[in-house]
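Our working data are protein records whose layout never changes between entries. The record below serves as our worked example for the rest of this section:
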Amino acid sequence: MALEAAHKKGYIYRDLKPENIILLRRSPIRIKLIDFGFARKVSTEEVLSAGPSASSVSSAGGPPPLLRADTMLGTPEYLHRSILRIHEVRSRGKRVTEEMKYGPEVDFWTLGVFICEMLTGGLTPFAARIPDFESLDPDEKLRRIHEEIESNPEITFDSSFPSDATDIIQRLVTIDPLKRIGTWEGVRRHPFFAGVDFAALASATV
């Protein structure tokens, strides 16, 4: 819900991870997303909240402008492949093209990585494949994570893992835009969140 609120304001967050979530010891307990240092304003409220099928238009009669980011920011094991690719391109002294840039899809990807980490209690899915990942230096982490995503982007689980959890993770952490859940309405309607009263959560009555 916090990421959705950021998107409604036209921002992409780019740094979802456990360290940036805090619990406030109140009654009821409140959960807050902190550290917006990597956030960037990319669009109007209508574009990010309604998704790619938004019907809102600009004064010129077309869709509202959607800026695409090209900066390498975030924590390696949570990064979308577009951000990792930009880092690799720039490290080789090459120019980042318009098609390489990214938008709000990076936050949906990171949400899937985050859900996977919370449910498995281990490393993030791609970092878990890399021996001694935590001991690597930052640049090596970026390189190895990118290699893992490019060579084997599919996240799989054994049959004991809940099917709804498997599905939402695979539909958020995917390089195929046709499979990706790309709207917050799509996230809320997923069976993984069945029974969750989002209105009550927003009003802090649960």
